[in-house]
Amino acid sequence: MNADWMRDERPRLAAERILDVAAQLYVENGITAVGMADVARAAGCSRATLYRYFDGRQALQLAFVHREARRIGALVAEEVSGTADPKDAIVDAMLAAIRLVRADPALAAWFQLGDSGLAAQLAHSSDVIESLGAAFLGRAGFSGEETSRKARWIVRIIVSLLTVPGIDDTDERTMLEQFVAPTLAAHDADERDARSI
């Protein structure tokens, strides 16, 4: 592969292209098996060039996760924008996120046996993912001082269902409707009541 694209395009576009190459390698080899040398070789550049864009393997993985989280977040927000009931909105959003991740081989690779621990670790420590979750909770009508904590909890549930799926789509929907939505709604109501006292 010719590396001229790295010199001719702006740095942001070069970084995007590197992330695209990494995504393909993640699908083909699994997340933990892909090193910086693999990405550099597939991108047609030197490791030194790759390190100008990402200071290491974890930075590359995190950049990929953040890019995809923003993309999935936008698709989920668009998909559930007309849902009025907050409980329905959160269930629909969580199911949409799960469906979109499962449908994308580059994202589904993160939840394969052996790689799911890395996905969980990155998801739980990601400020971008937490911010997206908190923003969605606000748009869905959930509020309160613990929005950030609620967002982290929702991410954990999504990661859990991606790692260990329910019996089928109906089972997953039922679990979210029965356990997650009422818990969020009750906690939100308790926070509103506490503030009004």
UniProtKB/TrEMBL annotation:
Gene3D superfamilies per UniProt: Tetracycline Repressor, domain 2 (1.10.357.10)
GO molecular function: DNA-binding transcription factor activity; transcription cis-regulatory region binding
A Pfam family this chain is assigned to: TetR_N
Residue ranges flagged as DNA-binding region: 35-54
InterPro entries given in the database record: Homeodomain-like_sf, HTH-type_TetR-like_transc_reg, HTH_TetR
HTH tetR-type domain ranges (all copies): 12-72
UniProt keyword DNA-binding present: yes
Keywords from the UniProt entry: DNA-binding
Stated name of the protein: Transcriptional regulator, TetR family
